[in-house]
Amino acid sequence: MGTFGHLFFTIMALALFTYPQKVIAYQGMNHTTATNLVKGIIGAIVDYTSRIGKEERVAMEMAIDDFNSLTNQTLTLRVMNSQGETFQAGLAARDLIDKEGVKAILGPQTWEETSAVAEICSQYSHTIPLLSLADAAPAWATTRWPFLIQASPSQDTQMKAVAAVVQSCRWRRVVFIYEDSVSSANGLVHLSDALREVGAEIGRFLALSPYNDLSQELERLEGDQCRVFLVHSSLPMAIRVFETAKKLKMMQKDYVWITTDSTTSLVHYINHSSISSMQGVLGIRRYFRDPRTHLHDFYLKFRKKFALEHPEEENHEPGIFALQAYDATKAVASAIQEGDREGQQLLEKISSSDFKGLSGNVKFVGKRLAPAKVFQIVNVIGRSYKEHGFWTFKKGFSETIDEGAIYSDSMDTLGIVIWPGGPRYTPRGWTLRTIDKPLRIGVPNGSLTNRFVNVQYHPSTKNYTIKGFSIEVFRKTVERLPYYLPYELITWGGNYTSLVEQVHLKNFDAAVGDIAIISKRYEYVEFTHPHTVSGLVMVVPVQSQSSNNTWLFMKPFTTKMWILTAVINIYNGFVVWMIERNHCPELKGSSVNQLGTLLWLAFSALFPVQGERLHSNLSRMATVVWLFVALIITQSYTASLTSMLTVQSLQPKVADIGTLKSSNAYIGYSNKSFVVSYLVGVLNFSNNNVKSYSTPEGYAQALKSGEIAAAFLEVPVAKLFIAKYCKSFIMAGPTYKVGGYGFAFPKGSLMLPDIDAALLNVSESGVLRHLEERLAAEEKCVEVESDNKTASLSPNSFWVLFVFTGGISTIALIIYGVRGTWSTGHFMLKQKSIWMFIVVTMEKWRLQQNRFFRKVSDVESPKNLPNASNTWVQMSHV
Fold first, then answer.
1. Which residues does 569 contact at the CB level (< 8 Å), separation at least 6?
2. Is 391 helix (H, G, I), strand (E, B) or coil?
3. What is the pTM of this model?
């Protein structure tokens, strides 16, 4: 029977049991009240059989004694034993009200007992405040029973402390083991919310009862991958859990065990036999000042009194539950003392209490004790425990909680924790597969293209060889994991969705290959980050289109080539103008006239125009070289322009899906991919107009024959397809976003974040790019390629010619300048002899190249060749 079933049964039994006595109880109240209320009697219900109940009783009695001695009051405490039974707690409540006439009731410890007592209290006409010391009360409790006050803090903050530990240790899943009670069930809700805030979750939960077969239940948990266990139960149940876990070898290396306040706050009195089963446990408990130093008198008095009343207990030190009971009793006593209040007035006074108690600041907010802010973290080691540090709400972890405390989000600042099995490093929180039990990885046997997954069967050995881009990416990813991960690849002959379902059914531990990431498959698994470009594209045949561009005549040369050609022209024209200006009156005159003449000289060498003959051999030399260079450049320009005018560019035969729909054309898709659902469901193609193909060759043949007008392929497949049929098809239209290819793992897989991190490392290190380049290089074009695009000519093709002509013109200009500064004399005669030799040599060479020189200037023909003396006369004017 579940928790709520027990509660319902108990309340109904109490109601049936108490209903006939209700009138009698009311009738007897006047006499009881008249004789006892003045005395100020406070009732309490505790469980004498539990350590908590024993501490609470002693602390309550001490609180009344201390209060009476300080205020000269005569308040009385009546304590009843519930024996941990819900029905007994209800009977005790009736006796306290009917026979003792108590003004308020303290306790009990469990919510089931508290609800039974509250139901009894609700049957009386006057208000009897009930201060619950249970772990937590449901939110609806104070609405149903307005006289109920929650005198213990909510579990919400405690579970946030647990979540902070989980986040600091980078665990992603927790197994929650709790006692089958309403109080513990409330903890389940708070823990789930707290873990969700830090990106973790409750993987499994186990509700325990005294009738559970613990060995069987824990063995089921041991079969799960998660190794982080949170125990939220009473101390006796927790001890049973740890003793059983030790027998099952679940208190060894790589296991994590955490206990909450209900167990950790009592760790100080656990006997040696039991604590030996809890080695390495990390406990979280509410923090209170050490009574041995700050509350010395209370500590001594408690130990003495507790030892006298409970000699069977080995440890006599008070815990947080004793301090909490002391403060709750003090709150009630103080409220009664001020004006001898009772009923509603007493309830309101208690609800507004705010004072400095033994357990810290006691403040009630809306009939609930303000939540604890500080929790202490302890580590069970040897025969005792080590106080490891603190966690403070909205601040974090710290070694101390004084004013100079330094807070951090990481528990590493607190020092080394000794975990179960003795390791000083933080456990991973989940188990790894061993060599004798490797991961079973499903691989699709029938990929659209064997470039991504290539499965080859060898009949002789009856084994498979599995290769391909996706397989290689997975192998590189596993190599970068921070641990060794054994695995085996197993082929799957079904479609991709059925492969994903096999992971969900736990027939495979994961699936690897060219598996498209789509939302429908997320119903079964979770995916890694995509390892390929995502998207869906349309592939169509190409058609030729002639070039037609207004500025096409400029394209044979690059911009730099045009600029350099113009600069060289102007420079050569300047050199000729500089040398020839003393011989031709036309080259003189105004600046505007000289500039026009200079530009004419610069470009006249490019065209066969009629002009005056050159008078200086220096200008002739520069012009001849430039004419040679200009001839090569003009011929190159002509050839390049001719090629561009005749080239045929490739254009898609179908531009977009609108054209396909309007023409009612047929389209193709892979029968092994999800594409058909996208084409019909999203792009709204008719089912009658889509055809499936199983191979790239099938696509190509259908597109060439016109059987289909377009094929829709995932981007990675389309790239390989275009690389293979490089001259026949082209990608057209927009890219439709889909998830790309990823690896599939079970939902909530604790391995998935590590795989994602390793996959990112493969990408960022350049390994993935190298594999992509190798993939593209392996796909050779099956058609003859022709270069349909003529590149523009750049200076890189002519730089030697430009340097040659520019250098010759510069040399001519330098000689001309130096020549004008030399003096006449013997040196001049010597130089004239040299020049005469050069001129005679050039004239002879000109006779052999008469046809070529005629294009440069109006040079005399061989029959009119002047003699050497005439030549010398001409040169004398230079």
1. 602, 603, 605, 606
2. strand
3. 0.65
Residue for token pair 């977009």 = 656
Here the tokens at position 661 are: 């729909």
Task: Enter the tokens of residue 183.
Answer: 């109080």
Q: Extract the tokens encoding 770.
A: 């190298």
Which distant-in-sequence residues (6+ apart) come within 8 Å of 66 by Cβ? 330
* The pair of three-digit structure tokens given for residue 226, joined into one six-digit string: 């998660």
Domains along the sequence of the chain with CATH? 3-154+294-363 (3.40.50.2300), 156-291+372-414 (3.40.50.2300), 438-529+742-779 (3.40.190.10), 535-547+649-738 (3.40.190.10), 565-645+796-875 (no CATH)
Strand duo 648-652 + 536-546: pairing: antiparallel
Q: Which amino acid is at 24?
A: I
Residues in the chain: 878
* Least confident span in 22-26, 388-392, 791-795: 22-26
Distance between CA atoms of residues 342 and 322, nearest Å:
26
All residues at 6 or more sequence positions from 266 whose CB lies less than 8 Å from its CB, including other chains: 51, 52, 235, 319, 321
**What digits encode the pLDDT tens for the residues 319-346?**
888 999 999 999 999 888 765 667 888 8
Contact residues for 297 (Cβ-Cβ < 8 A; gap 6+): none
Using CA atoms, how far apart are residues 358 and 321, in angstroms rounded to an integer?
11
Rg (CA), the chain: 49
The SS3 assignment for 236 reads helix
What stretch of H or E contains 476? Answer: helix 469-479
Three-point CA angle 455, 456, 460, nearest 5°: 150
User: Which tokens is 115 given?
Assistant: 């609800």
Cα–Cα distance measured from residue 235 to residue 135, given in angstroms and rounded to the nearest whole number:
13
* Tokens 């030190």 belong to residue: 317
Give residues with Cβ within 8 angstroms of 162, minimum separation 6.
Answer: 174, 191, 194, 230, 258, 260, 284
Contact residues for 50 (Cβ-Cβ < 8 A; gap 6+): 84, 109, 234, 236
The tens digit of pLDDT for each residue in 445-470 reads 877 778 899 998 888 888 889 999 99
Q: Answer yes or no: are the C-beta atoms of 81 and 92 closer than 8 Å.
A: yes
d(CA 791, CA 775): 28
Task: Give me the pLDDT at residue 843, please.
Answer: 63
Q: Do residues 512 and 441 touch, judged by C-beta distance below 8 A?
A: yes
3-state secondary structure 155-209: CHHHHHHHHHHHHHCCCCEEEEEEECCHHHHHHHHHHHHHHHHCCCEEEEEEEEC
CA distances to 261, 392, 393, 754, 817 from 286, rounded to whole Å, are 6, 10, 12, 34, 101
What is the structure's pLDDT at 395?
A: 94
Helix, strand, or coil (residue 643): helix
Query: Structure tokens of 694?
Result: 């199983």
Can you name the residues that pair with 563 across neighbouring β-strands? none
Sequential DSSP letters for 716-747: HHHHHHHHHSTTTEEEEEEEEP---EEEEEET
Picking from 575, 606, 613, the residue whose alpha carbon sits closest to that of residue 811 is 575
Q: Please state, in angstroms and as integers, the Cα–Cα distance from residue 608 to each residue in 339, 567, 596, 840, following that order.
A: 127, 20, 19, 27
- At CB < 8 A and 24+ separation, what contacts does 368-374 make? 368/137, 368/142, 368/149, 368/150, 368/154, 369/150, 369/151, 369/152, 369/153, 369/154, 370/153, 371/153, 371/154, 371/156, 371/157, 372/153, 372/157, 372/158, 372/286, 372/287, 373/157, 374/286, 374/287, 374/401
**Residue of 699, 721, 695 lying closest to 776 (CA atoms):** 721
Question: In the numeric block, which tokens belong to residue 184?
Answer: 């513990």
Q: What whole-number distance in Å separates Cα of residue 579 and Cα of residue 595?
A: 15
- Measured between its terminal Cα atoms, the distance across the chain in Å is 125
